[in-house]
Amino acid sequence: MLKRLCLYAAAALLTLTACSTDDVTDQSLTTQNTAIDVAPSTTSSSTPATLTQTTTTTKIDAQIEKARQNFHRLVPDELFDQFTSCDDNGVRDSMACSGPKVGQFQFFVSEVKAASTAQLLTGLNSSRVLEETDSRIVGWSILGSTAVITVVDKERGLVMQQMVSTDDIDPEERINELGLLNQNSHQGAEETLEPTETSATTHITTSTTA
What we know:
Keywords: Signal. This protein is an alpha+beta fold. The protein has a domain at 72-194. 59% of the residues lie in helices and 22% in strands. The protein is built from five helices and seven strands. It has helices spanning 2-71, 77-81, 111-123, 171-178, 183-209; strands at 85-88, 94-99, 103-109, 127-132, 136-143, 146-153, 158-165.
């Protein structure tokens, strides 16, 4: 009788051990399956963000390159390298470009605007022209405490404008900093002034002597 009881007890113990082992095995398999299920979701969630960032950067670069191709005759090519964004600004054939170090610029393709802007620069008392040729005008106009720096290509109907506060920025210095002046034309204008002053001095001296 005692022997049978021992056998029953041993059988029960084996059954409990087997059940316990099965539970551990099932739990381990469940954990592994969960890990396998979670890993792909982490990878898939990070991939779209990377693609979105790359796509956005590509679009920005394409817009800056578009502005460079259309308006490189107005400003130095190096200026486009400092832009961080260029977008259509709501006006036909125009763009707005900006950068943290250079500020915001407006670019236009319009023969009408080019003609009217050139007329304003040369006709208003509040405007000053630093460079003027048959095809190009560089200068600024004052509107209150704001200076509108302007470059006009009359032949191609191109206009660039930047608004700056005269309280903070001298427009002539700004134009020189941006390299907007054609140095050959600027030097030629200075050389043209010198003989005029010399001739006037000679005339006065001659009249006095006489």
